[in-house]
Specification:
The complex is a heterodimer.
Chain A lengths: L2 H32 L3 H4 L15 E4 L4 E3 L3 E7 L5 E5 L4 E5 L4 E7 L3 E10 L8 E9 L4
Parallel strand pairs in A: 2-8
Antiparallel strand pairs in A: 1-3, 3-6, 4-5, 4-7, 7-8
Chain B lengths: L2 H26 L3 H24 L4 E8 L3 E5 L8 E5 L6 E6 L2 E5 L9 E9 L2 E10 L2 E12 L4 E6 L4 E5 L5 E5 L6 E3 L10 E7 L11 E10 L1 H4 L2
Parallel strand pairs in B: 3-7, 4-7, 10-14, 11-14
Antiparallel strand pairs in B: 1-2, 1-6, 2-3, 4-5, 6-7, 8-9, 8-13, 9-10, 11-12, 13-14
Classes of the chains: A alpha+beta, B alpha+beta.
């Protein structure tokens, strides 16, 4: 046998071995995928949840309203179980909403009162909802 | 016409004439209790009418930018939404007060100066306000923000609001500091050392009295309420 012939036969054997090795590895991979149970195949993929947060709605009082008493009732609506902070220049009030609606009476100082209402919805990080009102307590006496 | 019909008609006419007279007599002889009831009812109606009238009444606030003979221009100073109003002050009809804590003191128009924060009530027509009452008041800022930097040596907090406005809050010994206890959900007094970057902060500052020598958007905090970051993440 000539020298060239023996080199060609040797290379053929080497390539054949490499090819068969690749085929075996690939087949094993496919088998492991197909061996997964139907439940495993149908498992939902964990994706980023898109939570819709209800903005704060204030039904009472109107913005820039004039009142003649040293307190005002705040009536509004936000997500259930939200942590609500009602803040003015003289008082902070905080509570957790049991239903979507909330109602709280806050004291007023004479003149302009900026009332800032924030709601932290439960389980939604960084989604603070805000509303600001101005209420004018102008004693007519 | 028969006699019986004539008698019937004359009785009807007599009845019609007598009834109002009797009614008048009855009104005149109302008991003191009835009079008191009527008075209370009148007062209730009057207060309800006043309440309904006031429900739709609004006031306008802003900083004085210009003072002329009988007018004052105020600006609500709210950035892009800035609105200017011309206030017409009538020496005989407009009353001007200065608010001092829980009381107010009547002052003169000459006491007004550029930069004062005014609250004005009256009739608005095309951004011109015929003033009934004018009050000089302290202007506050009440906001919610995120703490971005804490200086433990100089006792200040850098914060950014959800509208992307940045402020520096100097925590003074007079600043009232509160923090939410995340376990009990009660608001408790807190110290500066317990505040962390990333916490939410509800703050009150006085724009009228920001503190001595302050740069723009830097104030002495009047009151702060801190909501720890771990609570927002719950």
């Amino acid at each position: 046998m000539k020298k060239e012939t023996s080199i060609a036969v040797g290379m053929g054997i080497v390539f054949g071995l490499i090819f068969s090795f690749l085929v075996i590895v690939n087949t094993q991979k496919n088998q492991s995928v197909s061996q997964k149970t139907p439940a495993q195949k149908n498992r939902p993929v964990k994706t980023q949840q898109q939570t819709i947060v209800q903005p704060i709605l204030i039904s009472e009082p109107n913005d820039s309203v004039i009142v003649g008493e040293a307190s005002v009732k705040i009536k509004g609506k936000t997500d259930k179980n939200s942590f609500v902070v009602i803040q003015s220049q003289i008082k902070d009030i905080s509570f957790t909403t049991k239903t979507e609606e909330f109602e709280y009476t806050i004291p007023l100082s004479l003149g302009e009162n900026i009332i800032h209402i924030s709601a932290y919805p439960r389980g939604v990080a960084g989604k603070v909802q805000e509303k600001e009102l101005r209420v004018y307590y102008l004693d007519s006496k | 016409m028969k006699i019986s019909e004539k008698i019937f008609i004359s009785l009807m006419c007599t009845g019609l004439l007598i009834t109002p007279v009797l009614a008048l007599e009855a009104t005149g002889s109302a008991t003191p209790a009835e009079e008191k009831g009527v008075k209370q009812l009148r007062e209730k109606i009057a207060s309800k009418v006043e309440e309904m009238r006031k429900k739709d009444q609004r006031a306008y606030g802003g900083l004085i930018t210009k003072i002329e003979d009988s007018t004052v221009v105020i600006s609500n100073n709210q950035g892009a939404d800035e609105k200017k109003y011309t206030i017409k002050i009538d020496d005989t009809l407009t009353t001007i007060y200065r608010i001092l804590g829980t009381t107010k003191k009547e002052i003169k128009k000459s006491d007004l100066k550029v930069g004062d924060y005014l609250i004005v009530t009256g009739l608005m027509l095309n951004d011109n306000l015929e003033a009934n009452e004018v009050y000089i008041d302290e202007q506050f800022l009440v906001k919610t923000a995120k703490i971005t930097e804490i200086s433990k040596s100089d006792y200040y907090l850098k914060v950014i609001t959800y509208d992307k406005d940045e402020y520096i809050l100097d925590i003074q010994s007079s600043t009232r500091q509160f923090m939410l206890n995340t376990k009990t959900k009660e608001i408790e007094r807190a110290g500066f050392s317990s505040i962390k970057e990333g916490d939410s902060i509800h703050f009150v500052v006085s724009k009228t009295n920001p503190g001595e020598g302050k740069e723009k958007n830097r104030y002495d905090a009047v009151r702060v309420l801190v909501i720890p970051q771990e609570f927002s993440a719950q």
